[in-house]
Amino acid sequence: MIIFRKHHRVLVQGLTGKQGSFWAEKMMGAGTRVVAGVNPKRAGETHLGVPVFATAREAARTAPFDVAVMFIPPAAAKEAALDAIDAGAALLVVLTEHIPAHDVMAIHRAAARSGTRIVGPNTAGLVTPGEGFVGIMPGHNPNIFKPGRIGVLSRSGSLGTLICLNLTRVGLGQSAFLGLGGDPMIGVTTRAALQALDEDPGTEAVVLVGEIGGSMEEKAAEYAAGMTKPVVAFIAGCASPPGKKMGHAGAIVTGSAGGYPAKRAALEAAGITVVDTPAEITAALSARLAAAQPRTMATT
Amino acid sequence: MNLVEQAAKALVLAPAGIPIPQGVLCRTPEEAAQACRSIGSCVVKAQVPTGKRGKAGGIKRADTPEAAADAARAILAMSIDGHAVESVLVEACAAIAHEFYAAVLTDFASRRPLVLFSTEGGMDIEEVAASRPDALRRAVVDPDDGFSQADAAALVRGLDLGAAVGQVTDVLARLYAAYVASDAELLEINPLAVLSDGRVVALDCKFTLDDSAAFRQPELAAAAAREPATDLERRGAAAGLKFIQLDGNVGVLANGAGLTMTTMDAIAHFGGRPANFLEIGGEAYTKAETALDLVLSNPGVKSLVVNFCGAFARTDVMAEGVVKAWESLKPTLPVYFSIHGTGEDEAVRLVRERLGIEPFDFMEDAVKAAVEAAR
Predict the structure, then answer these.
(1) A124 lies in a domain?
(2) Is the pTM of this model over 0.90?
(3) Which of these is catalytic: B31, B91, B101, B176?
(4) Angle at A77 (CA atoms; ends A72, A82), nearest 5 degrees
(5) B20-29, B159-168, B280-289: which range is least confident on average?
(6) Is residue A133 part of a domain?
């Protein structure tokens, strides 16, 4: 379960904080079923109409949840994540940026043991227009997100938001937005997200938004080679100088590794249309959808 | 963050019990001569956080205090790979029988620590990995289990280490413990030398601290070497902003790393050259005023693109910062906006009413206009 659904019960860690409160309210307004919050200092209270517990493990006993989302600063992120994993979260959305890498490895190790899927760290979250969202995306804004059949996956929240906005402006609604995170060690990879959208019956075509650094896009290309759904991609960082971290810890080109040309070549070899600027995505997508139509008709 | 060799040896290897040669950090030729007097035959090594010291002439042997002073004088006048040499390590000369390679690093692909060992030390390990992949042993570590001397023995099994095998496996286990204790991203010993008397000693050390762990490694963070940076980049860092100065003509102010890179890409795509990377996403979205000042201080900038797409970052707060900065700095160069997302209506109103500028509906159009204006 990588795609967020309206029946998912959500636990908000750090619910009572400024950002936690602000975004939990927005999430609820968009239809997200927030069932509880965590703050050890305010256990027993009610906040935004839901109970607050000292730990995720305690919350799980009386307010079972499927998804946990963390509004937790970096130094406390490992403990909070391990708490949510221990509590049996099926999906853990880690919004926190700048978590120490050794803590991130410990989180992934614990999650692998218990079967928890980790989204992030440093993700902006998941949006399913018409159903709800978890994270810090404007999932409540109908000018940006609109229900439809295009799946969007993106390492970046700001760029992902722009691309969903562009889709919405031309009437292409989204089946799901999957924010994967700008860290070098993210849980749900570009490849895993692409597979989830490929397997989702509500998704007709995919927009893959990648960036320089690492090998996530190359691995996704291996999967895309076997797909029949059209995929259009944009890779950020073409004009970025090598050897410099471009804001995201994962966005760095070292030698030829993680560079733009290799990523673009791998995606194109897998049959993906790669465009030069975000505005070109909608036209490319419409063309691919039109081309795919007769084939879909013929095979059904 | 990187530590120079001497700091890495003193603060990371020595506390872990890994043998290092006797050495003294020196800032003047006189100090180097003094160090040589007490140590004897020595090597004078430039202390800069780069692997290109040897080839650049930053490592010299000296058998007398006078020679050590001369070597130090020459090396302290050097700049290697952009780093001005500010100190040298005067270290006891070692009679080397064999050179090995040992490292522990964070492997992003497996999301695990990775231990590397090779009997082909002393040279560029990427060359070894490319030309003789079987000469490089690798172990992906389960962080819950750690890496013991028995694990190290399994890693080096079948390699001809002679009588040094026990010391090597001991060093590998200690190196892993040091990697964990120091929040390392990379901890590398190259060469790990077997001396003619049979001792195993770390002759060099490379250490990269995970930037995100600096808050809990204050001693290591304080010892980090200064990276080459422009004055503007230092000003940005002091204000908590990630600013990278580039040799371009179109300034960039956007929120979020992904959108900022994309804005730079669009500038290049439409025939311009981006003048900077600077993102004010995340918590930094409240620093738009300082950010704009930085972008405009870059001498090559002929026009500016402000591209906001707010999710977490509120565009109204960012626009307010930009408008305030614009009114106080009174720049004369043209600026082109594209604003969408959280707080959009208020942000557009601010820019329209206070600056008299109409934002573009698409970022590509704002970029095209800015590229055109910078010609």
Answers:
(1) no
(2) yes
(3) B101
(4) 120
(5) B280-289
(6) no
